[in-house]
UniProtKB/TrEMBL annotation:
Keywords, in A-Z order: Signal
Peptidase S9 prolyl oligopeptidase catalytic domain residues: 210-328
Organism of this sequence: Paludisphaera mucosa
Keyword flag Cell cycle: no
Protein name, entry field: Prolyl oligopeptidase family serine peptidase
Signal sequence bounds: 1-20
Top-level lineage group: Bacteria
SUPFAM superfamilies, alphabetized: alpha/beta-Hydrolases (SSF53474)
Record Pfam families: Peptidase_S9
InterPro entries (alphabetical): AB_hydrolase_fold, Peptidase_S9_cat, Plant_Biomass_Hydrol_Est
Length: 706
């Protein structure tokens, strides 16, 4: 079941994933060091990069050109990055860099004439966008169908293809591939989006955001049918496809994951005999990305899985099939149906995964399997996504992933425990409203571990008479609901108070975990963030030295692993606009960092020269430092983070299944124990804040051994 190969796939390790978890594994840099570029080639490329940069700066001064500038900048950035950081991995890439600069020069010239030919081009092209996270220029590939014309009267299907692992897939290599190849699948009359995914992270964290930012950019240029979006990928991209399908079930018309992994523990062999499992909080945080825990969401996503018969990564689809078979628990609609059906027709609540197997194949598609997958997906795409399904069955473990179609979860009783919503838009099979006494009932909802939710039906889809009031039924509570609008839209917010559901206002206020403000520490790096560097005298030198080293590492790792430049400012230079727009990552201590000192008394930690106190435990401040995430007291709609970038380290770069959060909402580190490629130092305390951002009274446990 475990991958022992050294092929180009989502796991490149010295041996199988289980052994890769062992302490003897050699850490190697990813991306690896590049080759030496002949000085003449380097000088010529550098001169062209600088010249193209000057042309771009000139175009930047003309507002009409700004929207298309990233389509030019991607070429300059790709070559400049490779030169600046020694990331030419093959001398053949020097010629590729010349070609990229030539394309950038042509685009700059055309843009100066207000004649961007790539806007009307078909076939494989490259485009770019400015990321909200760090302001970097990020590339993506796009296959434009031959049938496309700028004045095309209809909206087009779009398939997303997530690429496999490539430790040397720098921007130069990626752009060259995307300019010359349509890829594994290129359906007729359909666009295919190839996100870069911020390099080699299985489309997690900033790599996840990259897909949606690229998709938004495509929508801004082309007529895309949002009801015909299909998620695909293979190997590392297959893992991404499982993740996107299960975590964003309301987005896709269909999903077609190939190979990959679907969770961490089994794939890595974490619980094998003799292994030391990760700490409880790291196990708990597998629930952020493990697709097996979200498998029930495929109820609303038609899915066709693929595996080669002999591929060890068939493990992913096998585990997902098992998770779907073991869903258990019937929805209210199923229970009602079972009450009137013959026993042999009763439903068990489980789903049978369609799993296409490539006969005799290893880590690749067979022609027959490719044709069968296309046949099934083409059929689904013709019908398209149901934008307002009659029934939604949604599972989550965190408010980071809180939406499926017309159902949005706004509050949990406890994060990282399973939460589920089963919602039927109407209480009766034929779509009409049922009657109980004089109550006209609309949506029928059952929940588990949910304390607040919003139901939103877009214009034209509400099946309710706009003249008449009605009631929603939630966990047996009958709640008066607002009427539908004249455009047949409908929105209602509900929250649970003293064990019963009531109608809620638009924002109940108060400090609470909510979507995009729920932790853990890594959550700060899905959105705009600013590293705030200390300039004052530190309280204790050992902690100061540790913090400076961690800041330097965070900046270096952001560039290498997420292919951007983290924004950095001195504490004295932070503005009100920074506080309004960014998550603030505060480095140093209350003596050295003025912003940290300003907010400290409103954070759940006490920190002075002598002690660090959090969640009832006290530590020596001379050798201990807190790490945490919390709503910013200066702007509770944004985070502050103390002394941490994203939390997985160099050891985890070797295996994409290990790229999960390594710290929860808060931790205390003994800096007398040196940091390593596996951790920040010795973690002596760690835990989660509760739903009101207060330390939990008891530690949650990680998942049971699979």
């Amino acid at each position: 079941m475990l991958n022992r190969s050294l092929c180009l796939c989502l796991v490149l390790a010295a041996s199988d994933p289980a052994q890769a978890q062992g302490p003897a594994e050699k850490i190697r840099p990813i991306p690896p060091p590049g080759v030496v570029v002949p000085e003449a080639d380097r000088a010529a490329l550098q001169a062209r990069v600088e010249a193209l940069g000057r042309r771009i700066d000139g175009l930047r001064k003309a507002p009409p050109f700004r929207a298309l500038l990233p389509d030019v900048e991607v070429f300059a950035v790709a070559v400049d990055t490779a030169l600046r950081y020694g990331e030419f991995f093959d001398l053949k890439e020097v010629a590729a860099a010349r070609s990229l600069l030539e394309e950038g020069e042509k685009r700059a010239e055309a843009l100066g004439r207000v004649e961007p030919p790539w806007n009307a081009a078909t076939g494989p092209i490259v485009r770019g966008y400015v990321s909200k996270i760090d302001g970097s220029i990020q590339p993506y590939g796009l296959v434009v169908p031959k049938s496309y014309r700028p004045d095309s009267p209809h909206r087009f299907r779009l398939d997303v293809w997530c690429h496999g692992r490539g430790e040397t897939l720098g921007e130069v290599s990626f752009l060259r591939q995307r300019m010359t190849s349509v890829g594994e699948f290129a359906p007729a009359d359909a666009f295919v989006l190839h996100p870069y995914g911020r390099f080699c992270n299985a489309n997690k964290f900033a790599g996840e955001v990259d897909l949606f930012e690229a998709l938004d950019d495509v929508r801004s240029h082309y007529p895309i049918d949002d009801d015909r979006l299909i998620m695909r990928g293979f190997s590392m991209g297959g893992a991404a496809a499982w993740q996107f399908a299960t975590h964003f079930p309301g987005v896709w018309a269909a999903a077609a994951p190939g190979a990959g992994f679907a969770e961490s523990a089994d794939f890595l062999g974490v619980f094998r005999e003799g292994a030391t499992p990760p700490p409880w909080y790291e196990q708990t945080l597998w629930r952020l990305y493990d697709s097996t825990g979200y498998a029930g969401n495929l109820f609303n996503v038609p899915t066709v899985a693929y595996s080669g018969e002999k591929d060890k990564q068939k493990q992913a689809a096998d585990l997902m099939a098992r998770a779907l078979r073991e869903l258990g628990g019937q929805s209210p609609l199923q229970k009602l149906a079972n009450g009137i059906l013959a026993p042999e027709l009763a439903e068990d609540g489980n789903i049978d995964l369609v799993h296409v197997i490539g006969a005799g194949a290893g880590h690749n598609y067979t022609p027959e399997a490719r044709a069968e997958i296309n046949r099934r997906l083409d059929s689904i795409a013709r019908k398209g996504r149901d934008p307002v399904p009659a029934e939604v069955d949604f599972t989550t473990y965190t408010l980071r992933y809180n939406t499926s179609s017309w159902v949005q979860v706004d509050g949990l009783a406890r994060h990282w425990e399973r939460a589920r919503v089963n919602a039927q838009l109407c209480s009766f099979f034929d779509g009409s409203m049922s009657m109980i006494g004089n109550d006209r009932l609309g949506p029928d909802v059952s929940t588990e571990n949910v304390t607040a939710l919003t139901l939103t039906v877009p214009p034209g889809y509400a099946p309710f008479d706009p003249r008449k009031a009605f009631k929603a039924q939630i966990d047996g509570d009958v709640v008066l609901a607002p009427k539908a609008g004249s455009d047949r839209s409908w929105t209602a917010r509900f929250r649970k108070v003293d064990g019963h559901w009531i109608l809620a206002g638009p924002d109940e206020g108060g400090l609470a975990k909510r979507h995009g403000l729920q932790g853990p520490i890594d959550d700060a790096f899905y959105d705009a963030f600013l590293m705030v560097r200390p300039t004052g005298p530190a309280l204790n030198e050992p902690v100061d030295a540790w913090s400076k080293a961690e800041l330097a590492l965070a900046l270096d790792r952001w560039r290498k692993q997420f292919r951007g430049q983290a924004r950095v400012k001195d504490d004295k230079d932070v503005t009100e606009a920074d506080v309004a727009d960014c998550n603030l990552v505060l480095w140093g201590d209350p003596g050295s960092n003025a912003v940290l000192a300003k907010v400290l008394d409103r954070l759940p930690v006490k920190w002075d020269k002598d002690r660090v106190e959090i969640a009832g435990a006290t530590h020596d401040a001379k050798t201990h430092a807190p790490i945490l995430i919390h709503p910013n007291p200066l702007n509770p709609r944004r985070y502050v983070v103390l002394n941490s970038g994203f939390t997985y380290r160099e050891f985890d770069d070797l295996n994409n299944a290990r790229q999960t959060p390594k710290l929860p909402d808060f931790a205390v580190v003994d800096v007398a124990v040196p940091a390593t490629p596996r951790g920040h130092g010795k973690v002596v305390q760690a835990g989660f804040f509760d739903e009101s951002w207060k330390p939990r009274a008891e530690e949650p446990r990680g998942p049971a051994r699979p």
